[in-house]
Structures are given as structure tokens and as C-alpha cells.
Write a structure and sequence with these properties.
alpha+beta; 3 strands; Phage tail assembly protein
Length: 109
């Protein structure tokens, strides 16, 4: 069996409404529905970059004492933490080393 959940530590951390700092978390591997589901969301239709927020809220299984990570939580991450999580997501899902395909290569795939 292979790992499906990975621990991470945010560089800055998320500060909740009570002032508690949350830095350590767990991210699970992404599934196809995690990538497809955001495309139906009206926030993504009006701003495609918002897909990142929704995807991260789906794959972060835990952050500190928080067991539910909503898009509103991810919206309030510091920019450095958001960038870190995007890189971490690509790394654990094996997307980091993929080279962009040329049009010809895509047609052959």
C-alpha cells in the first residue's frame, strides 16, 4: 500500500477567528473529482484562479485543531502559505516534474 496522506507545516500559519495559530496539517492525495468539481462552482466560472482555493479546501484533511477546511479558511491563508501549499500539492500528486506538452504530443496521447 502507498501513502495517501502527507504531513506539512505552513511557513506562516493560519490564524483563526479566536487568534489561534494553526501550522501543522495533513493533505491527502487528490482524486479526479477534486479537480473536476470546482469547474461547476460559479466562483470558478467568474474567476478561474479560484479553483485553487476550492481544490485545497477539499484535499487538506486537517490543519492544526481544525478538522474542516472550507474555502473561506483557505481564502484567509497568507500568500506565502498558499504558495507553499500549491507547491506541496503538485509534489505529492506527482505533478511537479511534468513538462508542458506540445500540441502534437497532446494529440498523440
Amino acid at each position: 500500500m502507498f501513502e495517501t496522506e502527507f504531513e506539512f507545516t505552513l511557513p506562516k500559519g493560519y490564524i483563526d477567528s479566536d487568534g489561534n495559530l494553526h501550522r501543522k496539517g495533513i493533505m491527502r492525495l487528490s482524486t479526479a473529482i477534486d479537480e473536476i468539481s470546482p469547474l461547476r462552482d460559479p466562483r470558478v466560472k467568474s474567476n478561474p484562479a479560484y479553483a485553487t482555493i476550492i481544490i485545497l479546501s477539499r484535499v487538506i484533511a486537517r490543519l492544526g485543531a481544525l478538522s474542516e477546511i472550507t474555502p473561506m479558511v483557505v481564502e484567509n491563508f497568507f500568500a506565502q502559505d498558499l504558495s507553499y501549499l500549491q507547491d506541496f500539492y503538485r509534489q505529492i500528486n506527482g505533478l511537479e516534474s511534468q513538462q508542458p506538452r506540445s500540441e502534437e504530443t497532446r494529440l498523440l496521447a
